[in-house]
Here is the input.
Amino acid sequence: MEGLLAGSDDAIRALYGRYGRPVYSLGLRLLGTREAAEELTQDVFVTAWRKAARFDPARGRLSTWLMTIAHNLAVDRLRRETGVTRPTLVLVDEVPDAPGVDEETLLIERDAAMRALASLNDAERRLIVRAYFRGLTAREISEADGIPLGTIKTRLRTAMIKVRKANEGKELV
Amino acid sequence: MNCTGVRDQLTEHAIGILSLRDASSVDRHLQWCAACRKEAGDLQRASATLAFSAAAAEPPAELQDRVVADVRAAAGVRVAHQAPPRRTRWAAAAVAAAFVAVSGLGWGAVMAGRAARFEDRADVATMQQRTALEEFQRLVRVIEFSDPKDQVFIGQLVPAQGSGGGGAAMTLVSPSIIDLAIVMVNGVPPDRWATLPFTVHLTAPDGERLKVGRIESLDSGGADTISREFNRDLTGFDRVVVVDAKGRVVMAGPLATKADVASPAP
Here is the structure.
């Protein structure tokens, strides 16, 4: 992190080597175009540099911190766009896996994610897709489905707890 | 907001779909409530786990170089192999990088993070703004402009009546390279965050306006920095205006040559 703060070429490339592809992949998933995913990736790493001084490893993993930045920036952008331009998203992506740097780490992270999704029932998975991958708020989902807001919040929370518990005892370093 | 209210929003907070105002309220609560912070951390990790469910897609090979160049420019590091024999856009980039460094990573940001009350952060923001202006002035003295016709204009942004916060702005006007504008706002009080996004314009006396960019969100200190390179001459654009989503002026200020610029009062 010190290297990132100093703008060290090696440190930036190391961080990108580990997280560039998942950040780009998340951007492609949420934003739907390669151009937008590339812009998001650039924004994420510059934002990470700007916030690097505030990163506290005692409070969370680097991957959690960085992917949270990526997701928040992507959702911000997604919510700025009209519904017309929002991509249709599904959990099973047609983009094939490709080998890359630090493949093993990514596979472990991906495995954890797939295990988490597998722990959800179909309704919970659809709810997560709408909230997490399409950036819809609980209120928007509530109004669209005609279901009380409190019910949507409870279901969302239940789903997220399942995601969390699916990987308990399998924390990554 | 009490713990019950915060926990009702923690899931959406972790997913990143809370409004900026609600997210800020939750963030403030999490600064002092360890129990809610622990739950927020659990949900945040779950949220980050989901991020890895996106099937891996291969970014273009050159994206890594662009990311490295962006971060190094932001960090104010000149990339040797990209340094041209004559000054091109790198001098402007260095100014931008130093500005971003001052506004986004310096002691001001750190202190703002430690200040418990927003009023305290606003005090910090004022000091940060003064530091930014001083840094502008230092940069203007330090940077070697190859073209004697290059001009740098800097200025302080003051809040509109009934608003709060402040800011600093700089434009680089050059006949030989790109022109550049950098605008920093800070200390914008939370009650104005609901009126985001802000739009930042340069204006000329004849009424012509140029958009510098949009401020979509603010950090916990009510701050953000934007910049834009222009492929046109910025000569004559002597004022910066920041308006909210409803078109109301949030803050504004004149740009003047460096000799005319004074730091804001402590």
